[in-house]
Specification:
The chain is of the alpha/beta class. The chain is 34% helix and 20% strand. The structure holds (2S)-amino(hydroxy)ethanoic acid (HGY) and manganese (II) ion (2 copies).
């Protein structure tokens, strides 16, 4: 079969259209899992699945699947493509959506080209990849891969006090399929890098061979409210100061470690949050990551030890709740090689690399050979409205996905 390419206009216009769904009056794009705005995004993706003539399926955790099941191969294990369409707060338009819409684009291109695959091809949009409203992140794919019981996941209470199962029912995406109902032959996820490596090295394609471990915790430090003016420093049990010590400790330790360890405190809430009251309680989140499991464990142990030290020194107490813990993942070497070969045939520069971000591929890798394709992020920026990948790189990545799919589901073309 002569070299086919995707319909770049269709892909880019859909990316722009989906990128406006959930944009508020303040200009911020917010499509948190199972929210009203995400429902609009889901409905749009479903309409594109139906326009493409694919079989639609939704499972009990709200994962959405568009299934191309050609005659004669329908019982074979499917090749699965996908990512997510939920976003963080004040998001860019490419994170997740690029992989989902490119997967759909590849299937539509192959159908239009009369391609005869050796197996069904499926595009998936997994629920709650970001984990901003309901922890852990990558929840829909984790449930799909059997890493979290679906009823336990549906019972998860979000940062806004809502229950995920109620919200999925409210938005009409409490599907009937059991998670895992399609066992993939292989899984490929196309994603923006969200980091600085490809751009810095002037490389067009990332063949992602592994993904770092992730540790999410919610820490509550309790002290004593007291008068900001009358309480001598020596008599304070200042939860705000204790929290600030921990933030500084995490940053300094990661910076001085000479390892890839990263640490982030992304959320922090003070009580009673009044200018003239010494904080009685502070709740904050800790996101620790490292490609090496032993080092990640060391970082967690060092944090535990430091909390004990601060508790003693400052007369406060700590409570730590585990929100997510995923070990590093190695992707399928054969598929990584296919990605490198496809890049070379298209004349693209390519390098193997580690993913700093979490992705649904790390969960599906538990049940099927999986790998990822990255395209550059300008300035390495993501989880930020300035997230940007040039159109030619987006199209190049989607054509890479197309080529790898043709190789994995080659049939007799
Ligand atoms: O946290 C992550 O790395 C992903 O964006 N959920
Ligand atoms: Mn993502
Ligand atoms: Mn993300």
């Amino acid at each position: 079969m002569s070299k086919i390419s995707i319909d770049s206009l269709r892909l880019l216009s859909r990316l722009s259209e989906l990128g406006e769904i959930g944009r508020g009056g303040d200009g911020r794009l917010v499509r948190l899992a199972a929210s009203d705005t995400e429902k609009l995004g889901r409905d749009t993706f479903v309409s594109w699945i139906e326009q493409a003539g694919l079989e639609l399926a939704v499972d009990r955790i709200g994962n959405i699947f568009g299934i191309w099941r050609p005659e004669g191969v329908s019982d074979e294990a499917p090749l699965m493509l996908g990512s997510h369409i939920d976003t963080v707060i004040d998001a860019g338009i490419y994170d997740g959506c690029y992989g989902v819409l490119s997967g759909l684009e590849v299937i539509e291109t192959l159908i239009e080209a009369g391609f005869k695959p050796s197996r069904p091809i499926v595009v998936a949009a997994f629920t709650n990849e970001e984990g901003v409203r309901y922890a852990p992140d990558m929840m829909g794919s984790l449930v799909y891969a059997g890493g979290l019981d679906v009823d336990t996941a549906l019972a998860t209470v979000g940062t806004d006090g809502t229950r995920l199962g109620d919200e999925l029912r409210r938005i009409g995406f409490d599907g009937e399929h059991e998670p895992g109902f399609l066992r993939p032959y292989a899984y490929i996820e196309l994603h923006i890098e969200q980091g600085p490596v490809l751009e810095r090295e002037g490389i067009q394609i990332g063949a992602v061979e592994n993904l770092q471990g992730i540790s999410w915790q919610r820490v509550t430090v309790s002290g004593d409210a007291n008068h900001a003016g009358t309480t001598p420093i020596s008599m304070r049990r200042d939860a705000g100061y204790a929290a600030a010590l921990v933030v500084t400790f995490l940053r300094e330790r990661a910076r001085n470690s000479n390892t890839p360890t990263v640490a982030t405190v992304g959320c922090m809430n003070f009580e009673p949050n009044a200018i003239n009251v010494i904080p009685s309680r502070v709740t904050f989140t800790v996101d620790l990551r490292d490609p090496d499991e032993d080092r990640l464990k060391e970082e967690e142990a060092a944090l535990d030890a430091y909390l004990a030290q601060v508790a003693k020194d400052e007369g406060v107490s700590f409570n730590v709740e585990r929100l997510a813990r995923f070990q590093p993942v190695t992707f399928d070497a054969n598929i990584v090689e296919l990605i490198e070969g496809a890049a070379a045939r298209r004349g693209h520069t390519v390098r193997r690399m580690t993913s700093g971000a979490g992705h649904d591929a790390q969960m599906i890798a538990r049940i099927a050979p999986s790998a990822m394709i990255f395209v550059p992020s300008l300035g390495g920026i993501s989880h930020n409205p300035r997230e940007k990948t040039p159109d030619e790189d987006l199209v190049a990545g989607a054509n890479m996905l197309l080529d790898v799919v043709c190789q994995l589901a080659g049939g007799d073309n």
